């Protein structure tokens, strides 16, 4: 069984997954690699991710929710708020195959993705990505059937009708397979599923107004709305757990530390609070007292004795701890507190899951590590290209225009190509070809440095305010500093230059400079003129300086065609929906209002397309391909 008992939490900021997102690196946890440890039977894990920094880590854990082995460290990018874990069971040829997946949603921006979790606790492939419909809630419904269902919802806005869709799951990939139900959906901040009696339910809730809608999951998978009303407002988390066959809910308000525990009725409604008076009391955990800030309540089940427990996290004072749920007939009472300790701040999502008969729990070995007390022995040149877009087939063809990978692979002593694409050219013969994952990006940079190379980096793909999108996560400024900064010391990692065609590439410029890059370029905001790699490479390899190569690449016949296409799309949309120009650039292309207003402030003669795409260069503009810098 993947999950020991019903796990659901009602909170926009803390939803499912033992994924925790962190603002800062964890100070308490010891990030060491214990290689080769084999765990038999069942193993508890938790995922931790921070919507602020985008950092994601997975740990195996003991019965007190203490981390044991870090099996995964990735960068998802900022803003992921809705998270859930689910499993599929596929029986074939007399064998039972368990697959585990994580589903995630961004509340702001409306994006959903589903990624596999490998049997050793590492992240696998991203099997589903939805961007266009703007869904910002995702929830896994677990009914009587052994197969889960995927609930995706979009809040009602001024320009879009709120809807939800319910899909069956492809057992092989975890992606939505067949639409089962669809209906209108109001404005809610939280969506949670739970069991009560013999039935399964889903509840949508808005913590600011107290408005809620409750649905029952039918035997054939459809959702029936059974209750709409106004409940108590202010609950920032709502978690469901089981005790002696009875299902309960614990509600908490992180601002006041008030909470309730209520038994669930068979019709899915909430019973009376277990506490006297007005049904509220201050929450305490061990010696922590009644300090507000308890923001996460996550159920989990211990392996030893299979005891139900609740894990608590206080985002204000970084305290964590666990409480046993007393299974002695007291019905949902909480036992003594254990494992009181201090974590780093910034966690926004925590969830536990279980893997049966996990294979070797070991973190991927990194590479020959350089000695930070020594200088990098950078004597020869290498190139690393990360080419990742993950678009629909028609867009994949468009993304290839202007990117001839052979220009990189044939002009360096060693070349590493990280991509999820099959090359269209037989001329592409890199020294190394691997998947375009975040971990591979840092792995091969460190390995090339340790082998005595100075490195030219080429990032081809999509970017956002949070960084460059790679397979399984995002390469952010903070991750660049965290991963590369300590290897040789600040400013000593042997990166010669960084070329970026990703949007918001300039946001990564300073991080690359800080770790050691001599020259870096990237677009100011959205990069509408992306087809410049080939002319840049031709100029760069022929001996032009870094600045000259960028300038020569800017003389491009594609620019007018792209500019006219974008302006046509804007004019059509503005005419149909009545958007202002500012609103269109913000909604369609993700430009912040302040970014668009910056264009107005400078009163640029160029159009916002040119202003946004402007290339910002930092570092040595006169650097050339035959330059051999030192660190």
What's a quick, concise take on this entry?
The protein has 631 residues and is of the alpha+beta class.
Structure write-up:
The chain is of the alpha+beta class and 631 residues long. The strands form nine sheets. It has a seven-stranded mixed beta sheet with strand order 30-29-28-31-35-36-37, sandwiched between helices. Strands 17, 18, 19, 20 and 21 form a five-stranded antiparallel beta sheet that branches. Helix 4 (477-488) runs parallel beside helix 5 and helix 6 (533-541) runs antiparallel to helix 7. The termini are far apart. The model is unreliable at 1-40 (pLDDT under 50).
The low-confidence runs, each spanning 5 or more residues with pLDDT under 50, are 1-40
Shape: globular
Structural class: alpha+beta
Question: Using only CA atoms, what is the Rg?
Answer: 26 Å
Q: In total, how many beta strands?
A: 37
Helical content class: 10-25%
Q: For the largest beta sheet, what order do the strands appear in spatially?
A: 30-29-28-31-35-36-37
Helices and strands in order, then pairings?
Elements (H helix, E strand, L loop, with lengths): L36 E2 L3 E8 L5 E7 L5 E9 L4 E13 L2 E12 L4 E7 L5 E8 L6 E5 L7 E6 L8 E7 L6 E9 L5 E7 L2 E7 L5 E7 L5 E8 L6 E7 L2 E7 L5 E7 L5 E4 L7 E2 L11 E8 L6 E7 L4 E7 L8 E9 L6 E8 L3 E2 L18 E9 L4 H8 L5 H4 L4 E6 L12 E3 L3 H13 L2 E9 L1 E2 L2 E4 L2 E3 L1 H12 L6 E6 L5 H10 L3 E5 L9 H9 L4 H8 L4 H20 L3 H9 L3 H10 L5 H6 L1 E5 L12
Helix pairs in contact: 4-5, 6-7
């Amino acid at each position: 069984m993947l999950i020991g008992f019903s796990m659901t939490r009602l909170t926009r900021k803390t939803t499912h997954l033992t994924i925790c997102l962190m603002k800062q690196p964890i100070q308490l946890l010891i990030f060491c690699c214990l290689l080769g440890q084999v765990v038999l039977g069942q193993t508890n894990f938790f995922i931790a991710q921070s919507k602020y920094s985008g950092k994601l880590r997975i740990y195996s854990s003991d019965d007190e929710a203490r981390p044991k082995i870090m099996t995964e460290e990735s960068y998802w990018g900022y803003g992921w708020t809705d998270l859930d874990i689910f499993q599929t069971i596929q029986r074939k040829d007399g064998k039972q195959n368990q697959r585990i997946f994580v589903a995630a949603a961004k509340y702001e921006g409306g994006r959903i993705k589903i990624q596999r979790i490998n049997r050793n606790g590492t992240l696998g492939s991203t099997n589903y990505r939805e961007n266009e419909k703007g869904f910002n809630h995702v929830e896994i419904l677990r009914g009587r059937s052994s197969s889960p269902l995927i609930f995706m919802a979009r809040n009602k806005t001024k320009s879009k009708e709120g809807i939800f869709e319910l899909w069956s799951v492809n057992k092989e990939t975890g992606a939505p397979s067949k639409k089962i139900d669809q209906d209108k959906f109001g404005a809610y901040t939280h969506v949670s599923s739970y069991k009560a009696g013999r039935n399964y339910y889903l509840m949508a809730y808005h913590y600011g107004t107290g408005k809620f809608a409750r649905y029952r999951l039918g035997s054939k998978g459809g959702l029936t709305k059974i209750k709409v009303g106004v409940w108590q407002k202010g609950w920032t988390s709502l978690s469901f757990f089981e005790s002696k066959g009875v299902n309960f809910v614990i509600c908490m308000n992180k601002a006041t530390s008030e909470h309730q525990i209520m038994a669930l009725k068979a019709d899915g409604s909430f019973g009376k609070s277990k506490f006297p008076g007005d049904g509220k009391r201050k929450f305490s955990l061990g010696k922590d007292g009644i300090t507000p800030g308890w923001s996460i309540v996550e159920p989990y089940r211990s392996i030893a004795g299979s005891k139900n427990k609740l894990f608590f996290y206080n985002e204000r004072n970084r305290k964590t701890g666990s409480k046993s749920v007393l299974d002695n007939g007291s019905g949902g009472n909480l036992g003594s507190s254990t494992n009181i300790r201090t974590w780093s701040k910034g966690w926004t999502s925590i969830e536990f899951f279980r893997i049966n008969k996990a294979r070797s729990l070991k973190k991927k070995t990194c590479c020959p590590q350089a000695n930070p007390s020594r200088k990098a022995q950078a004597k020869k040149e290498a190139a690393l290209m990360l080419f990742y877009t993950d678009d629909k087939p028609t867009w994949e063809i468009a993304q290839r225009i202007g990117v001839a990978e052979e220009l990189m692979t044939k002009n360096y002593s060693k070349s590493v190509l990280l991509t999820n694409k099959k090359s269209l050219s037989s001329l592409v013969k890199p020294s190394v070809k691997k998947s375009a994952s975040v971990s591979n990006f840092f792995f091969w940079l460190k390995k090339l440095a340790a082998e005595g190379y100075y490195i030219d980096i080429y990032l081809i793909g999509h970017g956002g305010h949070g960084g460059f999108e790679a397979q399984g996560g995002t390469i952010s400024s903070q991750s660049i500093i965290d991963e590369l900064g300590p290897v040789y010391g600040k400013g000593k990692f042997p990166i010669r230059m960084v070329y970026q065609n990703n949007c918001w590439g300039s946001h990564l410029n300073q991080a690359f400079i800080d770790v050691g890059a001599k020259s870096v370029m990237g677009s100011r905001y959205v990069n509408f003129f992306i087809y410049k790699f080939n002319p840049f490479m031709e100029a760069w390899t022929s001996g032009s300086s870094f600045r000259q190569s960028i300038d020569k690449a800017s003389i491009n016949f594609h620019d007018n065609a792209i500019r006219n296409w974008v302006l046509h799309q804007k004019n059509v949309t503005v005419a149909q929906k009545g958007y202002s120009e500012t609103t269109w650039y913000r909604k369609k292309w993700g430009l912040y209002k302040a970014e668009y207003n910056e264009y107005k402030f400078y009163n640029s003669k160029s159009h916002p397309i040119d202003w946004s795409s402007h290339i910002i260069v930092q570092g040595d503009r006169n650097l050339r391909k035959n330059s051999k810098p030192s660190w």
